[in-house]
């Protein structure tokens, strides 16, 4: 027996020693902030390695497929062979389509992105699924689809933090922090901008800035930047010419650009939703949709290669070259079309860098158009290019501080950064007032998730009526007389009785005190005194929805029914619901503040 136990469970002493070591590590990481910072640094280092691997993979595909020199970006090339682009995008799309078709046939859940993980799942992500997303992003960008790699960077980096946190069984708040740390390292490393990466994590991935999160997030971002710098340099670093001093008199011009960026960004996001719905309505097989998208993008690439890839080379080319206004408008229209088609048809990737390129084009178009009518009102055109990048980035990606720090870290000009920050805040306010979503949360909204940021709202989903209700409520037939009802339930036995019809379905709620009062004046039926026959809760409802129904009905008790059969299954009181809701909300607020 001892030999069998040892064979099954391993040597008892060694097993016990390893168990004690793991428990000690968990206790250390859960109680020591410096230990959590060390874990975040490790996450940042590995995330930066993954960023470099994804970048090198995509660049190698560009050079191999399109015969590019090592120092030429795909979107900045003079031309690409239409037949090569058609073949590469079609085959790449076919591979992605077959993978998605296989996932749907197996009924596997869609990969969870960092925003969804932190908002709804307490920071839990699948490392395997995220690496598949990283591979799909590399293939999508590598074959020439109009998507950026930054979504793959953030996905893989965040999942590394989530995986390590889950292995150490960290608290929910610490797990969410490590997800943010991984994303911060990935984005910071990709742009060579530690502040950008850190505030991307705070604004986009975590949904709030906290003192408790500053150490892990900034450490991971700095480590990510240093690692990518040592390995191969930041793949998305932006180079701009020197800019003139920005004076406050030009701020109204920047606000006008913010309004233009908001209108353009909201229109693009609405168009993305419409295009996805239209594509689903065609009933085209899932495996064929990316192929069709690839053919469409290849046709656009035959006009200009600027529509291909993330657009890093095209951005540098458009900033430095004096293209005519008509050409810039054409580039912008073609790029936004290629981005929407690529994403709608199933190519993997992000719009972070795409929004920067389109914003730069929008800023340059705005500068030329304004200069034609009022030259005295136009600041340095490069300032408007930078402001266009930031304001459109805020609308599509979110995060005014993220975009402002990106400008600051690439220009080292505080006067420009201050103006861009003001325009970015204006753009954020206008986008929230007119639309309410960034592109990431809008795509989640189209999938049925009602979230507007990465703030942790999973506790609301967990706090369901089914978990809060009192089961086996007191019931009676709606046809019973009031005298019989009072005899069945004496005073003090209960406050409310749930009534049912002859088939056992919910028929109303009766206050026992009211039943006693009416029973003294006559022998009426219970149904005559019943209330809320058309108002009830279901077990699947969350606490927020239930509270809204309580407010509308003006009742302090409501019945809970089965959503399919309408049989009564429970009873819930508003005071108890409000107390539990307040407790959970307070706990969530304390976690967000690091208390």
Summarize the structure in short.
Helices cover 66% and strands 5% of the residues. The protein has 595 residues and is mainly alpha-helical.
Give a written overview of the molecule.
The protein has 595 residues and is mainly α. The protein folds into three domains: 213 residues, Clc chloride channel, CATH 1.10.3080; 209 residues, Clc chloride channel; 134 residues, CBS-domain (Roll), CATH 3.10.580. 66% of the residues lie in helices and 5% in strands. Strands 1-7-6-5 form a four-stranded mixed sheet. It has a three-stranded mixed sheet with strand order 2-3-4. Strand 2, helix 22 and strand 3 form a beta-alpha-beta unit. Helix 3 crosses helix 8. The longest helix is centred in the first third of the chain and has 34 residues. It starts with a helix and ends with a helix.
Descriptive key words:
595 residues, mainly alpha, Clc chloride channel, CBS-domain, 3 domains, 4-stranded mixed β-sheet, 3-stranded mixed β-sheet, 26 helices, elongated
Q: Output the structural class.
A: mainly alpha
Strand order in space, largest sheet:
1-7-6-5
Count of helical stretches: 26
Per CATH, which architecture of the largest domain? Answer: Orthogonal Bundle
Q: Quick check: average pLDDT?
A: 85
Question: What gross morphology would you assign?
Answer: elongated
Low-confidence stretches: 1-14
Q: Specify the helix fraction band.
A: 55-70%
At CATH level 3, the topology of the largest domain is Clc chloride channel
Content of β-strand: under 5%
CATH class of the largest domain: Mainly Alpha
- How many structural domains? 3
The quaternary organization reads as single chain
Radius of gyration: 29 Å
Q: What is the distance, rounded to the nearest whole angstrom, between the alpha carbons of the first and last residues? A: 50 Å
The largest pleated sheet is described as: 4 strands, mixed
CATH superfamily of the largest domain: Clc chloride channel
């Amino acid at each position: 027996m001892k030999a069998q136990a040892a064979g099954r469970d391993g040597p008892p002493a060694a097993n016990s020693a390893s168990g004690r070591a793991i428990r000690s590590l968990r206790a250390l990481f859960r109680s020591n902030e410096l230990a959590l910072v060390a874990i975040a640094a490790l996450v940042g280092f590995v995330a930066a390695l993954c960023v470099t691997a994804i970048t090198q993979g995509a660049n190698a595909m560009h050079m191999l497929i399109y015969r590019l020199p090592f120092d030429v970006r795909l979107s900045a090339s003079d031309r690409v062979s239409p037949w090569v682009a058609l073949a590469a995008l079609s085959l790449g799309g076919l591979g992605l389509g077959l993978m998605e078709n296989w996932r749907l046939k197996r009924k596997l859940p869609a990969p969870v992105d960092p925003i969804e993980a932190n908002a709804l799942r307490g920071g839990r992500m699948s490392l395997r699924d995220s690496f598949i997303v990283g591979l799909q992003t590399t293939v999508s960008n590598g074959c020439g689809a109009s998507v950026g790699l930054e979504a793959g960077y953030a996905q893989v980096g965040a999942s590394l933090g989530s995986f390590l946190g889950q292995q150490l069984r960290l608290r929910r708040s610490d797990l969410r922090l490590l997800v943010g740390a991984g994303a911060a390292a990935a984005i910071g490393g990709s742009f060579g901008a530690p502040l950008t990466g850190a505030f991307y994590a705070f604004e986009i991935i975590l949904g709030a800035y906290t003192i408790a999160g500053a150490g892990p997030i900034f450490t991971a971002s700095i480590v990510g930047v240093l690692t990518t710098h040592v390995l191969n340099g930041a793949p998305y670093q932006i180079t701009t010419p020197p800019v003139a001093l920005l004076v406050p008199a030009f701020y109204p011009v920047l606000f006008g650009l913010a309004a233009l960026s908001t209108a353009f960004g909201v229109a693009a996001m609405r168009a993305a939703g419409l295009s996805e719905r239209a594509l689903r309505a065609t009933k085209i097989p899932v495996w064929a949709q990316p192929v069709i998208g690839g053919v469409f993008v290849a046709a656009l690439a035959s006009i200009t290669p600027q529509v291909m890839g993330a657009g890093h080379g095209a951005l540098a080319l458009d900033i430095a070259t004096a293209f005519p206004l008509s050409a810039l408008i054409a580039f912008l229209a073609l790029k936004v079309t290629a981005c929407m088609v690529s994403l709608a048809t199933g190519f993997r990737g992000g719009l972070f860098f795409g929004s920067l390129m389109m914003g730069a084009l929008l800023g340059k178009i705005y500068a030329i158009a304004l200069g034609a009518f009022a030259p005295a009102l136009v600041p340095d055109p490069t300032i408007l290019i930078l402001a266009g990048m930031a304001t459109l980035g805020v609308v599509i990606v979110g995060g005014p501080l993220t975009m402002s720090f990106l400008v600051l870290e690439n220009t080292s000009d505080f006067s420009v950064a201050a103006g861009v920050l003001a325009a970015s805040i204006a753009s954020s306010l206008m986008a929230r007032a007119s639309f309410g979503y960034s592109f990431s949360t809008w795509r989640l909204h189209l999938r049925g998730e009602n979230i507007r940021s990465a703030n942790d709202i999973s506790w609301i989903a967990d706090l369901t009526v089914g978990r809060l209700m009192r089961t086996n409520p007191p019931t009676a037939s709606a046809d019973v007389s009031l005298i019989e009802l009072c005899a069945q339930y004496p005073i003090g036995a209960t406050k409310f009785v749930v009534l049912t019809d002859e088939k056992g379905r919910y028929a109303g709620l009766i206050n026992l005190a009211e039943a006693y009062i009416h029973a003294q004046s006559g022998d009426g039926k219970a149904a005559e005194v019943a209330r809320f026959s058309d108002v009830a809760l279901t077990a699947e409802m969350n606490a927020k929805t239930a509270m809204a129904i309580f407010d509308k009905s003006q009742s302090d008790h409501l019945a809970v029914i089965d959503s399919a059969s309408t049989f009564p299954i429970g009873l819930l009181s508003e005071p108890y619901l409000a107390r539990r809701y307040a407790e959970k909300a307070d706990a969530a607020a304390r976690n967000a503040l690091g208390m």
